[in-house]
Amino acid sequence: MSHHPSMTRAEILRSDRENLWHPFADMARWEREDPPVIGSGEGVWLTDMNGHRMLDGTASLWVNLLGHRRPELDRALLDQAGLIAHSTFLGATHEGAVLLGEKLLSLAPPGLSRVFYSDNGSTAVEIAMKLAFLAAKHRAKKRGQSPPSRFLSLERGYHGDTLGAVGAGAIERFHAVFGPLVRPSITAPAPDCAHCPLGLVRPGCDLACADVAVDRIRAHRDELVAVLVEPLLQAAGGMIVWPKGYLARLAQGARSEGILFVADEVATGFGRTGTLFACEQEGVIPDLLVVGKALTGGYLPLAATLCTERIYRAVREDPGTFYHGHSYTANPLACRVALATLEVLEREKLLASIPEKRARIEREWGPLSRHPGVRNIRTLGLVAAFDLRPPSPGSAFANGGAALLEWTRRIGERTRERGLLIRPLGPTLYLIPALSATVEECGIMARILRETVESALSTSP
Description:
The protein is of the alpha/beta class and about 450 residues long. It has helices spanning about 10-20, 25-30, 60, 70-80, 95-105, 120-140, 165-170, 170-175, 210-220, 245-255, 310-315, 330-345, 355-365, 400-420, 440-460; strands at about 40, 45-50, 55, 110-120, 150-155, 185-190, 225-230, 235, 240, 260-265, 290, 305-310, 375-380, 385-390, 420, 430. The strands form 4 sheets. The protein has a 7-stranded mixed β-sheet with strand order 4-12-11-10-7-5-6, sandwiched between helices. A 4-stranded mixed β-sheet has the order 1-2-3-15. Strands 13-14-16 form a 3-stranded antiparallel β-sheet, with helices on one face. Strand 1 and strand 2 form a beta hairpin. The model has no long low-confidence stretch (mean pLDDT about 95).
């Protein structure tokens, strides 16, 4: 049965401006803007209430994996709704949670043996931080030592917006204002080769940035609970693609000092980087693995924290009870949709199709590599990004800041008019298509973004 809106577009926008508060939005600006009012979606296409069709260039903020209105996911949702929508996971269990737990553990790196469910990536990170702390505290107690209480993370890292995750994050514009409320992590430079924090220039780079991070692990080993990172790709930090070998060296550095290693794969998991989990690409087996976002194909909130049996046994022994939980933990609807998502991902061999789709994007963006206003074109899996820079020293954007951000915001508006919905990250423009996008659809996305940028650069002040 189709749903027909009971409100007009104008009524929706008026009520929105009067009653709602949007995330990561300058609300004074929002109240003046004319945003899209999404009415429906199918495949990788969105349709707003004006009937304007747009390609979903960011997979609805990196959650949509198999396209909108996916029949297999719709059926899983309806079948479960015909039984029960939710029951508590406190003191009870159900088949969907059990089957999904078995599936996740069968797909995850070896050695992970327990699954703790939550409802979004930030809370799943909080769970990982708490479990790591309890395990480290248990070990310190047995050794007669004071328990460690800090994490090591990377500059420009993002792990969510709850307070523990904010403490582990290091994106100033997001996190600085909350500094008095959090326990800040020890940070190491982000391995961003385009803006090397050590002033090195590839190809002479020998991963000195990894050595700096490992040195900090050694220097702070007695106070460190764990190393917490987004492997291979720091997404919200600007789509930073790590140099090969950095992840393995960092993980080995933590391991050699007896420090737990936590992989936050909320953004990178389930094929985004070309393998099911980013850790696989360098043979890293984390002590804790955090997943979310695409786990349900973008249908429902669900996340999970996977850990080793050693961590489980430590917490089981002391304190015995893990005092953490959520009302919608292991929601049956979400678990069934997640199972269907993983089944489709495997059956359709979508990971194997990524190289051809990535190559199409790279081919469409070829002309941008010669443009003086574009730099650092990079791809990883089905993630593609580049950075804008002022077209000339005398440009109004030469000093960056608000003017440059306004420029990229306008580029986002123009791509929307041309049929592509994106969300710039400061000067960084990127695409993260659903894995189900066809080669042709990936090419259209890339072409619209390229043509819009070329036009904007040719007319910029």
